[in-house]
Design brief:
Strand order of the largest sheet: 30-36-35-32-33
Number of strands: 56
Strand content: over 45%
Distance between the termini: 56 Å
């Protein structure tokens, strides 16, 4: 590797810059000029060569290799202080007996940042800093020793990562080479040559839209300034400006690409010129001299922001010391400057620029500062007013509440910049010239109300469904017709109705005894003088707030806050209540937006009459004679099929449900002789019965599955063999069972039977 040489002009010329004054505190007539907001020495930046930076949004990332480690500093654009660096990895730079190294930084399209550096003892490396601040793994680009120390990195708009560095011994001389990663740094291409020109110092990468990239570099032999243009698979080298050894030695370029894909390159001439060029087309560059200066030193930095404002910075000795200078060119305007920033150090070199655009156009300049026998990094922050700042206003719907029931919402705006004059919007899609919800003419734009909230209606077609997630997309436009480069959005859920369930809590349980009655039956049917209201939230996106119930006479029953996912409330009716359908109980449920809904609940009162002989089939199903029950299945199977045919009458259930019974009650017990009807209906009976719903009740014969040990409390795994009888009663909606019972013939379960098994997934931990 070669140590940087100071290239002096053959004839020194002292040129007055026409200094426009120190930048700090510019007021009055200077208000439109750039201002210097901060000058900071980076902590822990000892001996960092070619410090550089990149921006992602309003965050600035500064890179440098100091004390044999690669380091990254992070700050916000307007911050005037910078914290301690993050250590990325070893960056030993003395393998070739020299102490020069750099860490390159580049922003990626997803907002993350990539860094690259060289460790002369081991190779070339890259590392990603994710948007949440965590660091990804160190990626090895090339494992090799004794490489030169200078590297640059760029991330294309399609995510391709380029790393360029100086190979000291390629084809008999130093050459700039590069590697490519198309899988987010997981793998890298073989080493490829960037240019046949003999390399010198640092090649600088710039990236732009549509996968564009350019690498600015110069030739050790003084033949000129070059830009290697990326074509998607490799680089095509173009000469930007011709040079020669001596006074016309051109050196230390950097590059920038604007949002239209135009490439800019800036450099210095040792004869005392700071120059830049705009690419007009392939091998076609318009070259201009920005300033005639005294002894320019090291890199000339150039950067362009999102709307095309240009920034250039360099170091020269016009004041007698080596000081930093800065120029700014607003989009479509003339260059402003040079601006002089005195007192930054005894000896400065190698300016580098990056820029970002928020409320102003910010330039971030880094350069090497030599003070005494040491070197560190100086950072300068410039702010330039920009009429070309993209108009921007981010919507905030209903004060950022998550839900609304109003057909028109109140929208405020935050992060307003760039003086928006007009605005257009569309729900659930970005607005376009041909399709917006704000207006049908003028590309959909209406006047932006800068000082007031805006009332924006929700289209009727989007108000039809409850809990509908909606996103409002807005786009602003300036007085000059410039569009917001980012369509902003905010979301809200439209909820103008209550999502709740109200019903009579069903009977729970699987087995029950004759004395208890069945735990099973139709919803809304009860054999008691009370029933349980079940009130639940069915996903109300605003949340339920209150529940209230009133009787058929309008008398309040309860009124309280809704505090859970479901509440159950007991409601009684008079002891004198007639059999059958009862007067309605009205339940009103309100959500936290104030929407309410009323539900009518009409229970069916169907008690079992104490005198079976006089109840006229009102309290329990009546099983007529002549029914049949058969049990089918192999003697080695617990699970059998019951086929049932019977005529059943139940007056109340028939009137309310339109069918004679709700289901069957089934039991089985071992024995050689079937139980009598009296024994089955005895209060002392401990037989356990299982309710089974019959959806097609009354349509003739039907079949249901049944396991012989269901009513015994046994698992049936062992010891269940023997003779069984199966018993079937009929149930109405309130769980009342018929006194009559169907009895099967003897059913045999043989030794060696197959128990019923359930298979569940194995969960390893």
């Amino acid at each position: 590797m070669r140590i940087q040489r100071t290239l002096k002009p053959m004839v020194a010329s002292v040129v007055c810059l026409g200094l426009l004054g120190a930048l700090v505190g510019s007021v009055g007539a200077q208000a439109a000029n750039p201002k210097l907001l901060a000058s900071v020495i980076l902590s822990g930046s000892n001996n960092a060569k070619y410090p550089n930076s990149a921006t992602a949004g309003s965050t600035v990332y500064l890179g440098g290799s100091a004390d044999d480690t690669s380091r990254l500093w992070v700050k916000q654009d307007v911050a005037t202080t910078i914290g301690e660096p993050t250590i990325l990895g070893p960056a030993n730079d003395q393998a070739r007996g020299e102490r020069f190294a750099n860490t390159a930084v580049a922003a990626a399209p997803d907002g993350s940042v990539w860094t690259a550096w060289i460790d002369q003892f081991s190779g070339v490396y890259a590392r990603q800093r994710l948007t949440n601040g965590t660091l990804g793994p160190v990626r090895t680009i090339r494992a090799d020793r004794d490489l030169n120390a200078f590297v640059d990195i760029g991330v294309l708009s399609d995510g391709t990562i380029l790393v360029v560095y100086d190979d000291p011994s390629l084809n008999g001389a130093a050459r700039f080479v590069y590697s490519v990663s198309r899988d987010n740094g997981a793998s890298w291409s073989d080493i490829q040559t960037l240019s046949d020109n003999e390399a010198f110092e640092v090649a600088a990468i710039a990236t732009g839209p549509n996968g564009s990239a350019a690498v600015a570099h110069y030739d050790y032999n003084g033949t000129g300034i070059y830009a290697a243009i990326w074509n998607g698979s490799g680089f095509v080298v173009e000469r930007v400006a011709a040079g020669s050894k001596g006074e016309n030695f051109l050196a230390n370029p950097t590059a920038a690409i604007d949002s239209n894909g135009v490439v800019y390159v800036a450099w210095r001439s040792v004869s005392g010129r700071v120059q830049y060029a705009e690419r007009k087309g392939p091998n076609n560059y318009g070259v201009a001299t920005l300033a005639n200066v005294v002894d320019p030193t090291g890199t000339v930095g150039i950067a362009v922001d999102a709307v095309g404002n240009l920034h250039v910075g360099w170091v020269s000795r016009d004041s007698g010391n080596r000081d930093a200078y800065y120029m700014f060119k607003p989009r479509g305007g003339d260059w402003k400057g040079p601006f002089f920033t005195p007192g930054q150090g005894t000896y400065l070199a190698n300016a580098y620029l990056s820029t970002n655009l928020t409320d102003q156009s910010y330039a971030h300049m880094t350069f090497e500062r030599f003070e005494g026998s040491g070197m560190d990094t100086r950072y300068l922050l410039f702010a330039s007013p920009s009429d070309g700042i993209s108009p921007n206003a981010a919507p905030v719907i209903e004060g950022d509440l998550p839900t609304s029931k109003e057909p028109t919402v109140t929208v405020d705006f935050k992060n307003v910049s760039g003086s928006p004059r007009d605005i257009r919007w569309k729900w659930n899609a970005p607005p376009t010239d041909a399709n917006s919800d704000s207006a049908t003419t003028g590309q959909g734009f209406v006047a932006y109300e800068a000082d007031n909230s805006m009332e924006i209606p929700i289209p009727a077609a989007l108000q039809t469904a409850n809990c509908t997630p909606l996103t409002l997309f807005v786009q602003t436009r300036s007085a000059t017709g410039q569009l917001d480069t980012t369509v902003e959005a905010d979301a809200i859920t439209f909820d103008n109705a209550v999502q709740a369930s109200v019903g009579i809590s069903p009977k729970t349980g699987r087995l029950s005894t004759w004395q208890q009655g069945a735990f099973g039956g139709a919803d809304g049917h009860t054999r008691d003088h009370s029933f349980e209201l079940a009130i639940g939230d069915r996903g109300d996106c605003s949340g339920l707030n209150t529940v209230a119930a009133t009787s058929s006479t309008g008398a309040p029953i309860f009124n309280e806050q809704y505090l859970g996912k479901q509440i159950v409330k007991a409601v009684t009716f008079p002891l004198t209540a007639a059999l059958g359908l009862q007067p309605a109980t009205t339940v009103t449920v309100a959500d936290k937006l104030g929407s309410s809904a009323s539900f009518e609940v009409k229970p069916v009162f169907d008690p079992r009459h104490p005198n079976e002989a006089v109840q006229d089939n009102a309290g329990a199903p009546l099983l007529n004679a002549g029914g049949t029950l058969t049990v089918a299945g192999d003697n080695l199977q617990l699970l059998r099929t019951l086929t049932i045919s019977a005529t059943v009458l139940d007056r109340v259930y028939s009137e309310t449900a339109g069918k004679p019974y709700w289901g069957v009650w089934v039991a089985a017990i071992r024995g050689d002789v079937p139980l009598t009807e009296a024994a089955l209906n005895s209060d002392e009976s401990t037989l356990q019965w299982s309710p089974i719903a019959v959806p097609n009740a009354g349509s003739g014969s039907f079949s249901v599955p049944y396991a012989l040990t269901t009513s015994t409390g046994s698992s049936g795994l062992t010891g269940a063999e023997g003779s069984y009888y199966v018993y079937v009663k009929f149930l109405d909606g309130a769980g009342n069972a018929s006194t009559g019972t169907l009895v099967s013939g003897k059913v045999t379960l043989a030794p060696g039977y197959t128990p019923i098994k359930s298979y569940v997934p194995v969960i390893n931990r």
